[in-house]
Amino acid sequence: MTVYRYFIKIALRNKWTIIAYTIIFFILSIINSSNSTQGEASFIETKLDIGIVDNSNSQLSNGLKEYLEDKNNIVEVGPGEEAIREQIFLEIADAIIVIPEDFEERVINKEKALEVYRDDRRAESIQIQNQINKFLLFANATYEVGKFDLEGMKAALDEKIHVQLIKEGHKGTGEGIGEWFRYYFNFTGYVIMAIYIAVLGLVMADFTDPNIKNRRMISSKRFLDFNREIYLGQLSVASVITLIFILGCVLIKGKYIGVINFHIYVINTLALSFAILCLTYLINNVTRSKFVINGISTVLSLGTSFISGVMVPQELLGDRVLTIAKFFPTYYFVRINDMGPISLLDVRFEILMQILFGIAFLLMGLYFSKTTQRA
Amino acid sequence: MVVKVRNLVKRYKELIALDHFNMEVEEGEILGLLGPNGCGKTTAINCILSLLSFDKGEVEVFGRKMTPDAYDIKQKIGLVPQEVSVFENLTVRENVDYFCGLYVDDKHLRRRYVDEAIEFVGLKDYVKFYPKKLSGGLKRRLNIACGIAHKPKLIFLDEPTVAVDAQSRNFILNGIKELNKEGSTIIYTTHYLEEAEMLCKRIVIMDNGKDLVSGSKEELKAMITTSEKVVVSFTSISDEELSEMKGLPHVIDIERDGEEYIIKFESGINNLTKLLEFIKEKELIYTKLHSQLPTLNDVFLELTGKELRD
Ligand SMILES: Nc1ncnc2c1ncn2[C@@H]1O[C@H](COP(=O)(O)OP(=O)(O)O)[C@@H](O)[C@H]1O
Ligand SMILES: [Mg+2]
Predict the structure, then answer these.
(1) Cβ <8 Å between B81 and A214
(2) Number of other residues whose CB lies within 10 A of the CB of residue A267
């Protein structure tokens, strides 16, 4: 395992890249967590036309209706999945929500509580998901001994008022928490990309230096063994970097991870990590100039993050920008974070897209590695 | 025969880098591959080691056909490449350990090998240094240590003394002799005549991708017609006297190099005596006179019509 050992060693010689990004990142997320109550989500919200099919007709479902009514126009819609899809297609509603009979139970058990049909043609329709998530988050948090505290929730949901969300007296609104996780993970996507490309790229540039490569090629080290150790090294370094950011989140906002669907953020981050690792593989097969790698690390991570809505929400980006963004995995990663994820099933398409991007990068990398070997 | 190369042809697009190149290396010898820059020495080594594919020819190492996956043969080979090929991000010791680790898995054995290699090249005081902190000569020594730490039976050294100070150069040359004494067969490429002459038991002279001749120094020198040269500085000499001198028995040619006249003889008895008699008879005055045996440069000159000088 000499190759593996030295891969890690050289990666650690580039530790300042990792440390610099990490420190800046955590300083920003801590600053962000202390004043995230005025998240811009509130001022960008537009009124949507939504339909509600309420099969529960419970206290809680009425509370939800009231809450949504405040922020949107409620339109009349008919039930039935097919009818619903058609009404959305005909732009009668931007989104239609179906509340099941056992709505309250589901909320208590933190199961998927309702069905949301959105008009994907309207990017803003995502905000309905955010509103519902926020409501459900609060409902869950205020549930105690068989009762929802609807009054308390109403007060809490009013953005101007700060409430005690969690007993420990931690200050922050549901808006703040949801927003915080969204920002945290969106930026994690950016930072992971920058660090992966820079660190793995620089280490690989050393190993693929033609002179050093020649020495390996005349040695009795088998090519497969060598590659196995190199890839294991890449995987280890990548895992540690991703882990730092997932654990960092637990450290800073650990008490909320039970309230939000933390596992979806984690799975989302792992999917993106996989895609970026494959992207790094592609880059390493295209160039081994350290200068170019540093450039790509900065430009690609900043560029794709920006157009994918890490810095500015996707709703504010133009259609054309978003169309371009769809050609990068970060777009799908950000979409999941923006949805304020409810269940794995809801985000399966976005997860799949990220993995497919990874595989595509891998295949392209393989192609380039073959063409450069032949030269 | 440790290495056997037959009719090797290597083309880089239009350029023919190796043109039916032949070479044989016997166990235990130091073989010099001597030729001017760009004649194809590095290309030859890279083809022998399967680093480069070639268009035609055969390469056998340790009696077997050499291929990229002949790992058991590779285990016994060490290469000191022409370019210093080390990790800038690893220290001296780490570099030697990494490259040794490509051959030797056993940790304890490797530690011993690495220590010995570092000691051997005299870098003991520099183990924690990064390559960029080393002088040119010390870098070359590190390059050598990385190539020989696994104690190969067959070592290729590709111009290991280029751009090296005199002290490091002697150190390296003595080290190579020592490696040879310890039983390694050595293939040494160089464009320095003196090095080949001083170090190598046998020499292959190469030009334009071809092996011109091979043999021991004595054999090579015996191959050419010039067997002796006398260098004289006359205070004055007329053209007639000069052409008369050219007519002396065994004289092949007379060249003028400033004040000096270089008189070349083919092999014969009493060449020098005859020349001195002629000088006395003509009452020529000279300030300097010495006799030289032919050098490898003369061999090269006669074979190719050009000088092999730095
Ligand atoms: N990768 C290459 N592509 C094209 N030509 C090359 C390449 N490598 C070497 N050559 C040419 O092949 C010839 C032999 O080069 P080389 O083997 O390096 O000579 P030497 O080692 O004797 O100085 C030179 O003319 C050189 O320019
Ligand atoms: Mg060369």
Answers:
(1) yes
(2) 16
